[in-house]
Design the sequence.
C-alpha cells in the first residue's frame, strides 16, 4: 500500500496516513459479508476520530481470521503486479467483486 501510494515508510507501521484505514476497509474488510464491518465498528468504536482502542481483527472469529489472512495474501499478490494505487484498486475490486468508486475528475 505504501509503495503504490508513494508514501514514505518511517519504520513504524502505526505512523501511516489516515487513508490507510479507509483503503484497508475497502480492499480487505469489504470482502467479508455485508454485516461484518458495521458490527466491528459497533464492538470496536473509535476512542477519538480515526483511532480505535483495538484492531478490528481482534474481534474476528477463528474462521474469519483464516479468511482475513487469505484476503491479505490475495491483496498483496495483486499489489505486486501494479505500480500505482488506482490501477491496483480497479483490478482488485473487479477481480474480487468489491464495490468501488472511481475518482471524480472535474
Sequence:
Amino acid at each position: 500500500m505504501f509503495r503504490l501510494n508513494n508514501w514514505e515508510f518511517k519504520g513504524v507501521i502505526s505512523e501511516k496516513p489516515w487513508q490507510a484505514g479507509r483503503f484497508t476497509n475497502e480492499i480487505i474488510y469489504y470482502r467479508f459479508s455485508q454485516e461484518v464491518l458495521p458490527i466491528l465498528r459497533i464492538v470496536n468504536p473509535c476512542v477519538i476520530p480515526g483511532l480505535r482502542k483495538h484492531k478490528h481483527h481482534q474481534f474476528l472469529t477463528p474462521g474469519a481470521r483464516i479468511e482475513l489472512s487469505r484476503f491479505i495474501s490475495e491483496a498483496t499478490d495483486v499489489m505486486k503486479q501494479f505500480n500505482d494505487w488506482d490501477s491496483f484498486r480497479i483490478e482488485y475490486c473487479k477481480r474480487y467483486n468489491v464495490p468501488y468508486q472511481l475518482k471524480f475528475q472535474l
